[in-house]
Amino acid sequence: MSPANTPSSESGPAETLASAFEGAADWDAVLDALEQKRIVLEPVPPRGARVHHDSTATALSKVLPDFRLTETEGRFGESLSDAVARRGAGSAVQAGAPEANDVQDAHNADVVGEADASVGNELRLTQIFPIEVLDDFAEPMNLVERYQIVAQCEMMITELYSHLPLKRAMFAVDPVQELALIRQRLDSYDDDIALFRDIVAVFTGLHDLHTLFELPNPWRQMTAFLPFSIAEFWNDGVRSYCVNRIRPDEITDTFRPGVILTHWNGTPIARHVRAVGARSNGANPAAQIAQAISHMTVRPLMFVLPPSETWVTLTYVDAGGDVHEQRFSWQVSRIPPPPAVAPARQAAAGISAELGVDGIGSAVREANDWLFHPEVAEDERRCAAQHAEMGVLVANRTGPADTKTWLPRQLDFTVLEMPRGPVGYLRIKSFEVQDLDMFIAEIARILRLLPQTGLIIDLRGNPGGLIPAGEKILQFFTDNRIVPAPLEFRNSTVVRHMAENVTWLQHYRRGADLSVSTGQVFTQGFGIMPEADANAMGRVYSGRSVLLIDALVYSTGDFFAAGYKDARIGTVVGVAPRTGAGGGNVWTYDLLRTLYRDVPSNPFPRLPRGASMRLAARRSTRVGLSAGLPVEGLGVEADAIYYPTYQDVMFGERGLMEFAAARIG
Is the dihedral of CA 310, 313, 314, 318 positive or negative? Predict the structure, then answer.
């Protein structure tokens, strides 16, 4: 056994900046040294500008009290801001810019006050910094602000949460009573994090990734992460775990992709995964394990509390069989958003009523792309630029795109050589699309390019997105008629009021009104689109197919998987027994504020500090032979299960692909 690896203490921001100056001949040398440490500097708004509560400029002045980088720094004959601008290191988002609409204004309700006069025109860190810095960001809320947040959470769950009866039965919870108790004890919380911990626990207890409390600023814009990710594999019927991706600057002679984990902070790794899973939002045992693996290394602080520990200690076995121990510090960053932030069908982020997405899974996926696959964002920027330059729908063009997709963040495809001959492979990573029509056209284009001798549709890890994006493409794979999943509200006073006053919800009015006399728990169910729209384009892929799922498939991914099975399109192969079981249409608090914008007694006031929430406002049910059954909590069962090996995880999944291909047709 080799001696444990004990890393040297990591430099803080002050030490990093100070060391960058040593021997530097100009600002370029300083900035090059900082970039090697994954630190990027960008201008802070001038003195007197409006800034967000989570201003990293303020945090920087606290972290570096004796080491200021200011406009007056003239040692290199050029101001630092001029050097940053010259190098194109990026500019800060314009704080206080006019908002596009009331919804966006609600998202940015944290814009307050004047900039700290001591900050001036200094520069701020915008990329990566130690998690301890978060403690310097937040301003305590007062009792009134705490009350507003908890009271609105209580009202939303009581009046609008469609799965409330199911969750009470399935998990023996009473979120309404729990929130009432929190509201009663507001003055007993020592700090805001203690309050948020209890609120998040209520939402987590629902085991519903549609229904989430969104922490206020500064947390909501930050992501905590470790510089590696882990994956599950099976060894002689036993769950095992390895490190499958590592940031390049963290790779050492012993810590490399493929090392097998044995302990996490001294706890056997399998036991730790189960414990984290039990505290996750996963709706079934398989989903809880999958959520644990995902959240152990990436935590979007909009939805998930910051880790309580400053670092983690891994015990692992290297390729030579030696055991090592190494410490890794949690770090925090504001992850840059993808080039396409919101679907074009939405007026602003969060206001679409057609969303079905796992908010945490989407944020984790975005963070992992930024950490480990920066080429995805570059490919997307390139495709978007080419699309704009051509001025036509690129999905209808041929040429180089015959081997690549125009939507690399959502899709991937190739041809696999299998024992029975070539098989098409289509990976649908996400249904979060900027342009629904282009997404559908691109799917059709890809299907025509692939061999018609058999197709693997890989949905693994898909957190959802626009529900029509998932349901409209089902027709491409079958001659059978596609029936959109019915969506139902849980009857309540607020639902009846919406059905009476919102034009596009008035088809729910009769059922909502009758509930007063019939006692019906749910309204009638209606699809997100007319059945004719779900069948208007017809079959595109003439061959047979198989669907590949895992326990991270959620929401619109669940809609697609359920529709695939209920329409009897093909076999469902899983690396887990079932999908993540997200059977609902998620509505954000901002959407509800928009619906009630012109109502004098708006029951959805703006929440303090950018806090928010989202929930499953409408539940979905199955069709066909499973008609009426909920998807929520149950998911879509696999017809055949494959247990990935170490070779699958680390060397290209050949075994999994052969297993799936053998079940086509």
Answer: positive
How many degrees, rounded to 5, is the angle at CA 211 between CA 207 and CA 212? 100
Q: Write out pLDDT tens, residues 321-351.
A: 999 999 999 999 887 665 543 343 344 334 4
Q: Are 382 and 374 in contact (CB under 8 A)?
A: no
Under 8 Å between Cβ of 620 and 470: no
Rounded Cα gap, residues 157 and 556, in angstroms? 22
Per-residue pLDDT, 273:
97
Q: How far apart are CA 36 and CA 18, in angstroms?
A: 14
Would you say residue 41 lies in a domain? yes
Q: What residues have CB less than 8 Å from 603, skipping those under 6 apart?
A: 155, 494, 596
Percent of the chain with pLDDT over 70: 75
How many domains does the structure of the chain reveal? 1
Q: What is the enclosing helix (H) or strand (E) of 295?
A: helix 285-295
**Omega cis (within 30) before 218:** yes
Q: Is residue 57 part of a domain?
A: yes
Kindly write down the DSSP assignment for every residue of 491-548, as one continuous string. P-HHHHHHHHH-GGGGGGHHHHHHHHHH--SB---B-SS-TTGGGSS-----S-EEEE
How confident is the model at residue 117, as a pLDDT? 28
How many helices (DSSP H) and strands (DSSP E) are in the chain? 21, 24
Q: Residue 11 has which token pair?
A: 């430099």
Residue 91 lies in a domain: yes
**Helix (H), strand (E) at residue 45:** none
Residue-number span of the structural domain to which 41 is assigned: 13-127
**Reduced to 3 states, what is the DSSP secondary structure of residue 19?**
helix
In a domain, 24, yes or no: yes
Instruction: Name the nearest CA neighbour of 423 among 269, 544, 568.
Output: 544
Q: Write out pLDDT tens, residues 461-493.
A: 999 999 999 999 999 999 999 999 999 999 999
Radius of gyration of the chain (CA): 26
Residue whose tokens read 């947390």: 219
Provide mean pLDDT across the span 578-592. Answer: 95
Give, in order, the Cα–Cα distances in Å from 329 to each of 10, 394, 629.
8, 44, 45
- Over the chain, what is the mean pLDDT? 82
Helix (H) or strand (E) holding 194: helix 192-204
Mean pLDDT over 644-655 rounds to: 96
